[in-house]
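During the no-cost extension, the postdoctoral fellow (Dr. R.K.) reprocessed legacy sequence entries with the updated structure-token encoder. One reprocessed record is reproduced below for audit purposes.
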Amino acid sequence: QVQLVESGGGLVQAGGSLRLSCVASGRTFSNYAMGWLRQARGKEREFVAAISRGGGSTDYADSVKGRFTISRDNAKNTVYLQMNSLQAEDTAVYYCAASSGSMRTLRFDQDYWGPGTQVTVSS
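Re-encoded structure tokens follow.
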């Protein structure tokens, strides 16, 4: 089992920035591709970003490319999501996810989830 705990969510004005963190425990962190997904009220959960085990490759949803940056620190068992130029449509609960598969497949399939952190962007 892998336990994931997100932090860093909150209320921010449009155009602002937030940095989400997710700390993992339980199994070897570097064995997992990591990512972020989000779910807005009344909508389905959607892929945001993913990063490979070593951190050398990343993948983003088109809606966040150029604004969000995913990174990881395997020594700290932590994955981050830097969110800049936030828009009202970015309002959602953001979930950290881990996958024993590849970074490319994380957007379709995840093995573990965190409880989520709320991000609210006011316009």
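The helical segments are 103-106. The chain is about 5% helix and 50% strand. The remaining legacy entries will be reprocessed before the final report is submitted.
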